[in-house]
Amino acid sequence: MSDTLEELIAARRSNLEALQAAGHDPLAVNRYPVNAHASDILATHAAFTAEDGLGEPVYQVAGRLLSLRYQGKTLFADLHDRTGRLQLYLRRDELGDEAFAACKLLDRGDFLGVTGRIFRSKLGELTLRVSAFTLLAKALQPLPDKWHGLVDVEKRYRRRYVDLAINAEVRDVFILRSRIVASMRRFLDDAAFFEVETPTLLQVAGGASARPFRTHANALDLQLDLRIATELNLKRCIVGGLERVYEIGRIFRNEGIDTRHNPEFTMLELYAAYWSVYEMMDFNEALFAHLAQLVHADRQIPYGERVISFRPPFARIGYFEAFERYGSVSREELLSPEGAAGLLARHGIAPSPTHAHALDKLFGEIVEPHLIEPTFVMDYPLVLSPLAKRKPNDPDVVERYELFAVGMELANAFSELNDPADQRQRFEAQIEERAQGDTEVPAPDWDFVRALEYGMPPTAGIGVGIDRLVMLLTNQASIRDVILFPLQRPVAE
Hints:
With 493 residues, the protein is α+β, with helices and mostly antiparallel strands.
C-alpha cells in the first residue's frame, strides 16, 4: 500500500531532522559557488568517450534532484537546473561513509550542490562523478509522480511553482516569453523609442472600453481606478515633445476569464509623432516578423493543427469588405443602429445597449473566425473608435486597423485624433452611451482634452497584447499557459 501524503511529509521532516542533527542543515546554507550549468557541460563534452576517463575541469553545479537510483554502494541521480538535466554518480568509497550515509536522507525534489568531473558511463551517458555535495534545500512536500506529472490543469495554474519544477516544457515557454519581450524592447529602442512608465492608479481610467477595477487611496480619501490602458498618458508624453514613446505594462480589466482573456494582462503601447496608421502598419509588420524570426527561423508558426506565416507582407482587408465577404452584410446595415440590431437578432446574439457594442459583437461572430493568417483589418467605423482620426473624405470611417491571426486580435492601431473640439464631442457622445447602459464605456478624461489644446502633432499609436502574441509564438492554447500566475478562484486547502 502506498504511503499517504501525511506519511510522506513526516518521513521527509524526519530526514531533515537527521541531517540537522548530523551537522548538515540545509537551512543554514546561504550560498553555493556554481561555475557551470547542465547544458553547457553536456555541450562541452559531447565528443567525450569512455576511454577519456575523468575529464577536466572540476565543475560545481546546483539544481533539483528529480530522480534517485541506489545500487548498493553507489547512487545515480538526475540533477535538473534551469538549462536541463545532468546525471550524477556518487560512490561511498569516494565520498566517505558519513557523506554517503547522508545520501540516504536525500529525497526527490531536494536542491543539491555538487562538485565533480565528467565521464561517460557504461551505458554511454555523460555523467558527473561527484566528489563532494551540499544539500541546499529540503523538499518537505513530495513532487507529483514522475511518470504522470502534474496534469490537473487547475492545479497546474494554482501551484505554478510545482508545474515549473517538474514540467520542462512549461519552463521553456516562460523563458521564451522573457526573450520575446527583451527582443521587443531592443527592437523599439533601436528605432529611437523611449520607454516610459505611466500611473497604474488613475482618477479616470480611459483609453479603452472596459470596466475598471476600483480601489481607494486612504491617504487622499479618494476612489481610484486601475488602468485599462496606457494610451492617454502616453499621448500626453507626445504633447510634451518626447515624440516616440512606449510602455510595456500590466493592464487591468474587470471582465470575463476564458482562453483568450485574463483580468490582468500585459500590453505594449507605443506612439510615434509624425506617423500615420500606415507607417505604423509597416512597423507592426516588421516587429512581428522579427519576433517570429526569433522563435522560428523561417517565420512559419505552428499553432494547434495549423501552420501560419509571419513572412511579410501580411494580408489586408477593409472592415466593410470583410463583413461583405464572410457574412454578406452591407456597409449600410452596419452603419445603421437599427440595421446592426437586426443583424444581432438574425445571428442569435443578445441585444446590445449601444450601436458600438453591437458592431463589436457582430465582428466577433461573423468575421473573426475567418482571420487565420496574419491579417490587417482596416478602416473601422467612427462609432467604434472614439480616439482615432477620421479618414479623409469619409467622415463615418477612421484611420484604424486591427491585426488578427488564428481568429484572435493581436494589435490595434490608428492615426490619433488630435483635434480637441472633435475629441470633446466624442467624449460627450460616450456619456450618452454610458447613460444607455454600456458599462464598458469609460468616463471622459477632460484633462486629456486640455492636453490636446496645447497641441499634439500628427501621431500614430498601437496596442499589442503580449500574452496573446506569446500564445501564438509558443503554440499555447490558453492565455493562462503564458501567464505565470493567472487569477484563480480560491479553494479550501
